[in-house]
Amino acid sequence: MCLVIEASSMKENLIKEGKFSYIEIGEGTPIIILHGLMGGLSNFNGVTDYFPPKGYRVLIPELPIYDMPMLKTTVKQFSKFLKKFIEFKQLENFILLGNSLGGHIGLLYTKMYPETVKALVITGSSGLYESAMGDGYPRRGDYEFIKKKAENVFYDPKVATKEIVDEVFDTVNNRSKIIKTLAIAKSAIRHNMAKDLPKMPTPTCIIWGKNDQVTPPDVADLFHELLPDSDLFWIEKCGHAPMMEHPNKFNEILASWLLKRGFVGEKQEKLG
Asked: What is the pLDDT of residues 206-221, one digit of tens each?
């Protein structure tokens, strides 16, 4: 299971209400962003900067990746948590955007509760296949091994800053977190969606790094083949997290697709 972690902190922007912690920026058409396993909210800084001025309301809930009881540390339970968040915020006709595990959660949520999902956007999503962090149990205490694995997430290894590598290293060396990481990886394998995708007509935008080593390009091709109403876009010289590695290109592709499909922000609607 991929380790894509936080590039910089957005903790100061977190809103805490009841059992939910989340970021909310802008007004208008809701875009709910779903981060990956160990995927920081700031991985989507480019999206949160770009879309709110165009009339979108961007929300990023903190998923309880390491807070659920072991038996509930599953993709399905995270999808149910998302449903509770959506009900809490009274959202409808929203766009779901997920990277890696977040894409998988978005896919499963859309399968389970399709009536309120206006559109789905997946990038580097699990749900069909992804390579593991390593062969079996990640090597705790081996900093160079963890550094190499973090760098492999990106086309440009420099994107894996020391801050990112340190955070992965700390997580891998936290016994409770690594046990749950492996539980989530097994859950993702169990929740393979190959048979479900052909029955999911929700319009889907697939944005993929051409050099993704975690969920390789043929995974994107298979998503595109199986989903009835999908469009596939490639980003060259890009790994598993396009919204981090090429934020401008990612936003350009997504904004163009939303406009083409008529899922425009409220300010764009007013402009005609």
From this structure: 999 999 999 999 999 9
> Residue 84's CB: how many other CB atoms inside 10 A?
13
Altogether, the residues listed in the chain come to a count of 272
Give the 3-state secondary structure of residue 158: helix
User: Quick one: DSSP state of residue 166?
Assistant: H
8 A C-beta contact, residue 43 and residue 99 = yes
CA-to-CA distance for 234 and 237, rounded, in angstroms? 10
Which of 116, 120, 93 minimizes the C-alpha distance to 106?
Answer: 120
Q: Which residues does 67 contact at the CB level (< 8 Å), separation at least 6?
A: none
Bridge partners (DSSP) listed for residue 97:
33, 121
Q: How far is CA 228 from the centre of its chain?
A: 21
Output the furthest CA–CA distance in the chain (Å, rounded).
Answer: 57
Residue with tokens 């596939």: 232
Neighbours of 93 (CB within 10 A): 12
Reported as a single tens digit per residue, the pLDDT across 156-182 is 999 988 988 888 888 888 888 888 888
